[in-house]
Write a structure and sequence with these properties.
The complex is a heterodimer. By secondary structure, chain A is an alpha/beta fold. Chain A has 21 helices and twelve strands. In chain A, the strands form three sheets. In chain A, strands 1, 2, 3, 6, 9, 10 and 11 form a seven-stranded mixed β-sheet that branches. Chain A has a three-stranded mixed β-sheet with strand order 7-8-12. In chain A, strands 4-5 form a two-stranded antiparallel ribbon. In chain A, helix 11 crosses helix 12. Chain A is globular. By secondary structure, chain B is mainly α. Chain B has two domains: 58 residues, no CATH class; 237 residues, MetI-like (MetI-like fold). In chain B, a hairpin with a 5-residue loop joins strand 1 and strand 2. The longest helix of chain B has 38 residues. Chain B is globular and about 75 Å long. Classes of the chains: A alpha/beta, B mainly alpha.
């Protein structure tokens, strides 16, 4: 019986066992890979760390100065290894030991487990801005104020800096952002005789025009699992769903069913009901193919979107892509929004927080590093010296046949972005947004009802987690 | 396991010629017995018993985002059995097993009986082919079906196109039940077929001859002789299928990435526990959900074994 049960081990025994076993395993591998035993730390931390991780030690990159203090980093930026090499060859006293622990939720799952197990986290971790409050509230990140965060504050715009601060503390050093714009297929627009929409009203008209022209393409997609993308659309109409302040971590305000949200929902569900936009799930293979094969004429995207698009397979060879600013609700009073973006935080398990903070501050703190990030990683920099440089403004993108998309679209979108506060339970909130929008798309309830139900669910959850909900 | 060793060994020595030295011999053999069992016992305690105890201890505590950890006794369990998301997941897996298990049994039993009756090369080949899906890792199998179900990459639109129909969305909320049923049956029927087939091979063929002499035809041999004689194997695979289905996780978890709407975060109890622990960092409540599921699985399989105790030969 036992042997047979074991052969079907993928259907786990009790998951409870699985959870704990996974924690143990993570802790074990982290201990063996992380380098440096805690015991040597007190006497000679530098030596201990250096010799332990010098050879293979779990680093994806090559350590250039074996005797230096090592800082472990988790990150999933494209072309990041070159950035790490650049850092290591320009720093003698600190070396970065980088590994890719997965993208987004894959990494957060590991980090979350490491927090719970009190061991196994890296020293420095890449986090999307939207999950920062979720980790701040679990005391997983170090306040960098004591480690010279103020030295680099001037290199970022105040709005961006605010997004990475909470209460009186600074919990991450910004890296890249996701100001939003509209990427569209010039060839499809021309064929249907559509002018580039600048407002959402024009956008709705364009959707109808595209249909009337007999094209098989839809104007765009409204994915119910769009998470941060959907949130950004709500934000543009003035929705500020959360108020959360690290100084008062047991209080949170929730308003997910405000007028802005309902206005945006009414707009999109009107287009959906007329069959003018799709409702495919985002981030699936089907969706990726549809983005580039002409099924959609518009991809409402963040500044990292062009890099995402150009990496997709099955593209239409004759496609002509162009970038334009995001449509506005009120053209005289444009509102810029953000989708995604990430930062480096120092974890509370860091062996040497000072060295870790140095890495977080300096790894994307040079023009050379950013040229790698921009040209090979398609990142949108938040570091002002490069963001405001002529180089970045005048950069021509081959994917857009030489269009200077930063100058035309994204620099303005970035400059106008005023920040956004996320909740300390963002993953849960996003899951509920997805569920509610899906049931509205299925016709089980009206979009207004979905927003009201969403509000109720998230408030209930926050209350059950011990928050005082205002 | 160690107990069976200590029981068996004396009977071996008793059968030998020197009953007087039995005591010291036994002791030293016992020591060796422990030595051989030790690797298993250590791994068993470290990776199964200890985590289970720890998880149970966790399930008695509560740690919320806003406040620290505190002891709450069985509050988490009371909440779990009132939690509509958990109950909805339990309801789904119960419904799923009520449909899946008979279907799977029917398919695997039929195939095994047919293959048992045939003896040519084709039968050997067919046996292998029917078993092959089980050799495909579940994750790969689920991803493969994800593509086959895809309206864009899958064959559905072509197949339905022949009849001039629009292909259904295989993973829409209405169809996801049947689609999962298909994936699981495809994967496991071959495995159950092998178990039944092995049991059939173990039957003394002279019984068939006797039956034929008494005038039984092939149908009667199959239904009146073969099936009753392998009933213990049938009960065994039923229990496996029941436990496996109540803990349904891998296939829906993989297909979630292409059907986030139809398969939500509490689709099955195991997915719910996983999401709670690793996505919402509610480790304590996730442990309680897991144990609550454990209770359901235990009660379900025990009740089943009790009801079939005469036929199973397992009690």
């Amino acid at each position: 019986m036992r042997s047979i049960r074991r052969s079907r081990g993928h259907r786990r025994g009790w998951v409870a066992a699985g959870i704990s076993a996974a924690m143990v395993v993570t802790a074990l591998t982290a201990c063996s890979g992380g380098g440096g035993t805690d015991g040597t730390e007190g006497t000679d931390g530098t030596e201990g760390g250096g010799t332990e991780g010098g050879g293979s030690g779990g680093c994806t990159n090559q350590i250039k100065v074996p005797d230096a203090e090592q800082v472990t980093v988790w990150a999933w930026y494209p072309a990041f290894e070159e950035v790490v090499d650049l850092f290591n060859s320009t720093h003698d006293e600190v070396q970065v030991c980088w590994s890719n622990a997965g993208q987004g939720n894959d990494e957060y799952t590991k980090f979350s487990t490491a927090i719970e197990a009190n061991s196994g986290a890296p020293d420095v971790i890449m986090l999307e801005t939207e999950v920062l409050p979720s980790f701040i509230i679990r005391d997983a990140l170090v306040d960098l104020t004591a480690f010279g965060a103020a030295d680099v504050a001037g290199s970022y715009s105040p709005g961006v800096w605010e997004d990475h601060s909470n209460g009186g503390g600074v919990y991450a050093i910004p890296v890249d952002g996701g100001p939003m714009g509209m990427l569209y297929r010039q060839d499809i627009f021309d064929e249907a005789g559509i002018a580039v929409p600048t407002t959402w009203d024009e956008f709705a008209v364009a959707a109808q025009q595209l249909r009337d022209s007999g094209s098989s393409a839809m104007l765009t997609d409204f994915p119910t699992n769009g998470r941060a993308y959907i949130q950004a659309l709500f934000d543009q109409a003035g929705s500020t769903p959360y108020v959360f302040d690290g100084d008062n971590p047991t209080e949170v305000s929730i308003e997910l069913n405000d007028d802005g949200t309902k206005e945006v929902l009414a707009y999109w569900f009107d287009l959906i009901d007329k069959g003018l936009v799709g409702t495919d799930d985002a981030f699936t293979t089907d969706y990726n193919t549809k983005l580039v094969d002409g099924s959609y004429a518009v991809y409402l995207a963040a500044a990292w979107g062009p890099g995402y698009l150009s990496g997709l397979a099955g593209a239409d060879e004759t496609a002509v892509w162009r970038a334009a600013p995001l449509p506005q609700w009120d053209a005289t009073n444009p509102v810029q929004v953000n989708w995604g973006g990430s930062a480096f935080g120092v974890t509370s398990q860091a062996k040497n927080p000072e060295a870790a903070a140095l890495v977080a501050k300096e790894i994307f703190g040079t023009e050379d590093a950013w040229k790698i990030g921009i040209e090979q990683g398609a990142l949108f920099p938040l570091w002002l010296p490069i963001l405001e440089s002529d180089y970045f403004r005048d950069l021509e993108y081959p994917f857009f046949d030489g269009q200077k998309i930063n100058q035309d679209v994204f620099m303005e979108a970035s400059a106008g972005y005023e920040g956004f506060t996320f909740s300390p339970f963002q993953n849960f909130a996003y899951d509920k947004v997805t569920e509610q929008l899906f049931s509205a798309v299925q016709g089980e309830k009206s979009p207004e009802q979905a927003a009201d139900d969403l509000q109720q669910q998230v408030v209930d959850y926050a209350t059950s987690q011990g928050f005082t909900v205002n | 396991m160690s107990q069976s060793l200590t029981v068996d060994l004396p009977s071996v020595t008793r059968a030998g010629h020197r009953p007087k030295r039995h005591g010291s011999m036994d002791r030293s053999r016992q020591r060796f017995g422990w030595f051989f069992v030790a690797p298993f016992v250590i791994v068993f305690l470290t990776f199964l018993v200890a985590p289970l105890i720890y998880a149970f201890w966790m399930s008695l505590h509560l740690k919320t985002l806003a406040f620290g950890e505190r002891f709450v006794g069985f509050d988490n369990y009371l909440q779990a059995f009132r939690d509509p998301q958990f109950l909805q997941g339990v309801g789904f897996v119960v419904k799923f097993s009520l449909v899946l298990i008979p279907l799977q049994m029917l398919v695997s039993l039929t195939v095994a009986l047919v293959l048992d009756a045939l003896t040519d090369r084709l039968a050997k080949f067919a046996r292998l082919m029917i078993f092959v899906p089980y050799a495909v890792p579940v994750v790969i199998g689920a991803m493969m079906w994800g593509f086959l179900y895809s309206p864009r990459f899958g064959p559905m639109s072509e197949i339905f196109g022949v009849f001039g129909l629009d292909a259904p969305l295989m993973l829409s909320p209405g169809n996801v039940f049947a689609s999962l049923l298909n994936v699981v049956t495809w994967q496991w029927a071959g495995y159950y077929m092998i178990i039944i087939y092995a049991a059939l091979r173990g039957i003394d063929t002279s019984i068939y001859e006797a039956a034929r002499m008494d005038g039984a035809n092939s149908w009667q041999v199959a239904l009146r002789i073969k099936v009753p004689m392998i009933s213990s194997a049938l009960v065994l695979i039923l229990v496996f299928a029941l436990i496996g289905t109540l803990q349904f996780f891998t296939e829906p978890q993989i297909l979630r990435s292409v059907a986030a709407g139809s398969i939500d975060a509490a689709f099955t109890p195991n997915i719910y526990a996983y999401t709670l622990a690793f996505s919402y960092s509610q480790f304590n409540y996730a442990s309680a959900i897991s144990f609550a599921l454990g209770v359901v699985v235990f009660a379900g399989s025990y009740a089943f074994l009790f009801l079939t105790r005469k036929k199973s030969g397992l009690s």
